[in-house]
Request: fold
Amino acid sequence: MNKIAFITGATAGIGEACAIKLAKNGFDLIISGRRQEKLLQLEEKLISENQCKVHSLALDVRNQNEVNSKIESLPKQWKNIDLLVNNAGLAVGVSALQDGITDDWERMIDTNIKGLLYITRAISPLMISRKQGHIINITSIAGKEVYPGGNVYCATKHAADALTKGMRIDMLPHNIKVSSIAPGMVETEFSIVRFKGDEKKADQVYDGFIPLGAEDIAETLYFIASRPAHVNINDVLIMPTAQASARDVNKQ
Ligand code: NDP
Ligand code: 8X3
Reply:
């Protein structure tokens, strides 16, 4: 029987690449995100290219009622979730705090912190009842360092880093692994979202150096997820070779 992975934010970028990598390596998948059309496209691709089963679950991680009811409504066999990838997240804007837009702050806090909590609150009891499971949180270099214009996004990723550590303690008696991956710059839809659809500004972020690709994170995630039962990788900080810190990028 295949293992089951539940991925949030599978409609783009890192989450989509993780779905493709896990499907190639024998996982069945529950893929989630808000964009139903993208989920269906990915579901078709995964099923046509792999020997795997896929269940699409359109949901907004910010809506706890929706999260609970959609997870509760999963068919019984899909509730045996072995791997949860808490990936859904976003940055919105680069304003200094004194110029900040409350709606941007709330989108980041509600998605990156509260969404991660709602999903984990709903899925971890299913893992606990089976005394097995693995939760991998996609945090960020922004959870280790703070950079200009990063204020609230960095705060949410510092929170995700702290929650990873807290979860690891809480899950310890239940034989559940908790890991995190903290990437530096990865070229995905991330900057388009951050700059609210301004593709020119988004492209400039990755000009002059080779950023990570979503596949690089997916490879790392699969490595973490495929260690023997007695081994847990707590945290991986992964950067492009051209990046030394959140603020130091060797652009040519
Ligand atoms: P993308 O914008 O390409 O993908 C983000 C994904 O999150 C989409 O699938 C989106 O789906 C989903 N998502 C966003 N909001 C919600 C929501 N409210 N409910 C459900 N799903 C949601 O960005 P990345 O792939 O780059 O980002 C993935 C994660 O990696 C994020 O947590 C990000 O903070 C983190 N990260 C990214 C880095 C980068 O440089 N790209 C570096 C470090 C960390 P939909 O719109 O369909 O809901
Ligand atoms: C995304 C990477 O450097 O923009 O988490 O914070 S960065």
